[in-house]
DNA sequence: GCATTAACATGCC
DNA sequence: GGCATGTTAATGC
């Protein structure tokens, strides 16, 4: 039986086909406690389900949408993982975010056009939430409106944290921060927060953190030597989460003025 | 193809 | 000079 790795879960292709063929139901979704409709009453959930459609699964390397395309929806990630990329004027690619199951993507739509390309890191399934329907429903359902605002505030807060990280933190602090963030996000979504697969390459991690891939490798080795992590290829086991958290706060004295 | 490691280079304090 | 990080090249999985 062929198998696919989805996060740190493994399931059969047969299972996936069965899941895909099921009529979309937020109520029965394993991520219902994390996704937008989590605070809705059964009646409002039924109205919400009417605006949601499931997109065909995106293969590894496939794009959910590309920069310049019209922005008309938000997307809730059901399974898999994706990355957001901005291409600079000189053709350089900068990764500006990784997206895990239970999270929303599509906030980069400015004046109805996306300014990011979102690419699947492994076979991914997403639910599409059309913006005009979401706006209409948010006016009718106050708890949905609050939830959308909460997600947007969280997005802005994360962007600010990332700016601070890139401006002020050492390479060691950046990598520790990245791993702690990933651990928290996976942990809050029912996955192990100390034992997981990195769905992104070292090159992607380095690009996202503004480092060289070799620096990421060196730091991973350093963390292993300190007993903080065990890493085998993309499998990460966090041995000492407190120590890893301690590395997050390490600001560069050269940059801390 | 991707990850790791070593040697060397560079910039900052 | 010491430290942090980047670049290049070699090597292994």
How would you describe this structure to a colleague?
This protein is of the alpha+beta class. It folds into two domains: about 5-165, Jelly Rolls (Sandwich); about 170-250, Arc Repressor Mutant, subunit A (Orthogonal Bundle). Helix content is about 40%, strand content about 25%. The chain has eight helices and 13 strands. The chain has helices at about 15-20, 40-50, 130-140, 140-170, 170-185, 200-210, 215-225, 240-250, and strands spanning about 5, 10, 55, 65, 75-85, 95-100, 105, 110, 115, 115-130, 195, 230, 235-240. The strands form four sheets. Strands 3, 4, 5, 6, 7 and 10 form a six-stranded antiparallel sheet that branches. Strand 8 and strand 9 form a beta hairpin. Helix 3 (about 130-140) crosses helix 4 (about 140-170), helix 5 packs across helix 8 and helix 6 crosses helix 7. It is globular, with a radius of gyration of 19 Å. It starts with a strand and ends in a 9-residue tail after the last helix. Mean pLDDT is about 85; it is low at about 1-20 and about 250-255. It binds a DNA duplex (13 and 13 nucleotides) through helix 7.
């Amino acid at each position: 039986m062929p198998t696919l790795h989805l996060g740190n879960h493994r399931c059969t292709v047969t299972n996936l086909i069965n899941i895909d063929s099921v009529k979309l139901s937020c109520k029965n979704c394993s991520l219902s406690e994390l996704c937008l409709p989590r605070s809705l009453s059964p009646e409002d959930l039924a109205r919400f389900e009417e605006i949601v459609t499931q997109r065909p699964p995106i293969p590894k390397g496939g794009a959910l949408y590309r920069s310049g395309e019209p922005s008309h929806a938000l997307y809730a990630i059901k399974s898999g993982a994706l990355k957001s990329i901005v291409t600079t004027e000189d053709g350089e690619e900068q990764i500006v975010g990784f997206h895990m199951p239970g999270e929303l993507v599509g906030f980069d739509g400015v004046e109805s056009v996306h300014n990011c390309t979102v690419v699947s890191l492994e076979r991914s399934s997403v639910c599409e939430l059309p913006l005009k329907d979401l706006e209409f429903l948010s006016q009718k359902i106050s708890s949905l409106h609050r939830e959308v605002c909460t997600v947007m505030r969280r997005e802005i807060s994360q962007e600010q944290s990332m700016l601070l990280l890139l401006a002020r933190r050492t390479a060691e602090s950046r990598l520790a921060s990245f791993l702690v963030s990933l651990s928290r996000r996976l942990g809050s979504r029912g996955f192990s927060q100390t034992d997981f697969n990195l769905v992104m390459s070292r090159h992607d991690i380095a690009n996202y953190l503004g480092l060289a891939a070799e620096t990421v490798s060196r730091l991973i080795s350093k963390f292993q030597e300190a007993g903080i992590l065990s890493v085998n290829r993309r499998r990460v086991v966090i041995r000492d989460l407190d120590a890893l958290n301690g590395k997050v706060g390490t600001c560069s004295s050269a940059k801390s003025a």
